[in-house]
Here is the input.
Amino acid sequence: MKMKTIKTCVTALISALLVFSPVAYADKWSDQFPHIKNTGDIPGECSYESMSKKDYSGKTLKINTHAVPVMGEPTALHAEQFAKLTGAKVDVTHTPAGDLYAKAMVPFQAGQAPYDIVFGFSNFINDWRRYLEPVPKKYVEMKQMQDVTPSHIGVASWDGVMYQFPVDGDRHYLKYRKDVIDNPEYQKKYKADTGKELRVPQTWKEYGEMAAYFNDWDWDGDGEKEYGSAEVMKKDDLMYAAFYSRSAAYSKNPKTPGGFFFDLETMTPLINNPGFVEALTDWVAATKYVPPGGINFGLGDEIGSFGGGQTLFSFSWDDAFVAAMQPDSPINNKVGAAQLPGAMKVWNRKSNSWDEGFNQAPFFVWGWAVGVAKKSKEKEMAFDYLCFFANEANHQADIGIGRFGVNPFRNDDFKAEVWTQIGWDKDIAESYVDTLAKMEESKNRVFPLRVPGTFEFNAALATAAAKALAGQLSPQAALDEAAKQWNDILNRVGKDNVRKAYSVGVAMEDNKL
Amino acid sequence: MNFKHKFIFLFPGLFVLIGILIFPIIFTIRLSLSGWNSYTPEMNFIGITNYIRLFTDDPRFWESFFRLSFLSVTTVILQYVIGFSLALMVWREIKFKRFFRVIFLIPMMTTPVIMTVIWRTFFHESLGPVNDLLGNIGVKPILWLSDPVIAKFTVIIVEVWQWTPFMFLLLLAGLLSLPKEPFLAAAIDGASPFRKFVYVTFPLMAPISIGAIIIRLIEASKIMDTVFVLTSGGPGTATETSSFYIYIKGLREFQMGYAATLSFTYLVIMIISLTIIAKVLTKLMIKE
Here is the structure.
């Protein structure tokens, strides 16, 4: 009798563990697809269960995506799963980031559709939208889409029409070494040496001071030197986005709506005003506290450098933070997240002077985006694939893997439990979701430039900024050169064309959309 | 006899020539007169607007061209000197001659892009082994890729390593084909090795040397993969070359019409300058 009772108790305990354990959820789908082992299949219009009822046997879906791993790996993984569930054949082509635009644009312009699905960046939307099929109503209205934040619905849409299927959410924010900034000994030492508080930097000036202080010495006792900051400074490798992040606090003045990149009324480029020049001057100073060779760091280098424990600070997309928080990272649970630093002054282009006082402006930088070609013959299957890619089970699994490049864009992602379940410390998870949520709530946001000729504008700015970082030009001269080129591009594209497109972004920044 | 039918046999070659050479050039010229870009996706006609922009408002192209001239001339001179030295070494009767000949050719057999990735890893300023090794002997980290001047020399090092074997191969073939009599005559006259080189070997090798230099100059002037992988034209624009700049304008910024203008102009400049260089080299190196 006693033995039977013990057996019953053990069985009940094991059953309870299996049912309630967050890390060992088992259902028939997670048995077949271990990628979703933490959650199992989550019911929905595009769940594993729903997709298994579709039959695309004998059909082929062609996808052009980024190189492995960032976005390329989840694309291929979900393609394989989709093929198993629906019987479709899925061909995935991997393309380097710099060639994604042209690889889709050339056949688009030639009226062909070698790919049913094209991955790119959200700021391609204005150039690509005429070749993309708007996301059908049934997907826009489905439950999983209702959870996407308004900012990211805005990023994926143009004038209220959704052209890009939301699979990723991106913004730039600050990442810092919590074990240093929160360390009482270092706080005392920093105060003694500089007379200032060691804290999460509130302004870019503080960021620079702390980074310079913690530069070129072994502050974590691992026998190797550490450095102040890892940043994307390599020309043509997304460095323009890093520059906009540094510029936002100095140049996005809530008192002067009507444009961050251009004055919407006159279409005068604003990128050489004192706010941007101040940001570039700070950035040139930053070349002194990045690791050796940091001036050539692309996004991958930045993720590796900060994620590998080489620097005190970093700021860019979520990937470096998530990579740093993975169990195999040397700085697992030693990092913190905060909004991008602000500034103690912001340029007022109306009064042509600085407005004194603290200013902060989150940058909703472009992210990964994906659309279905208008000329595709397999539109239904293509949208089903995208819907499956972003279903709740896949999404929850994807956002916990740093190298995947899939970042939060749903309201549910901003709950700390999502992150503590995958091993993050509670306070880090809370600081992370709090940072993201505050950015969503901000009324002084900057959105990426999404106008005809976006690539030309950003490339001109990146080249000028790179010249300043390399010491070839002063910050003012570099930005004057960029502004002149922006005027030339405006003349080529047509001021009115650019103004019309830019007004959509300005409306978002001015909280009118 | 009527031999007119013989022209029929020329047609296949003529068609191939038109298809692979004439048509692309004509298409490029036509494209260069259009404003095809991401927002005007059509082969419209804008006259010589792109050419006016190039000659009056694009200093970056000309800077990249002069940078390219410096890089290609420097690398080819170094490749010639080193390649000639190595060829002379294995031309003589030395031990393991065949082994050295193969070893010297290995860099040329490797894939340039992959080797450049490896070189980039070597020269990585904070994670690469080169600065680590230099650190062991007390040398401060050298900014191989992030100093505007040093980065140029890093590109030169990689190019010289990759392509010296090509020069070596051509020059060794030339040395092996030289007649023996002039060397016998020089030996009978008691000429020293130095005099033999200056008065016999070098003059006899001049036609081959000119050919090798011109071939390498043509190749070096197209340098793209090394710059793309190693520095992406940076820091700033310090290592940006013409072909990399044309790539950026055409395939990154999607200014197809303007990129065609740059390509055609570049082709014309290269044809003229290489013709002049060949004539100058002939005058300098071949004595009547």
Chain A touches chain B through 39 residues (CB under 8 Å). Chain A has two domains: 28-166+367-407, 173-364+444-509.
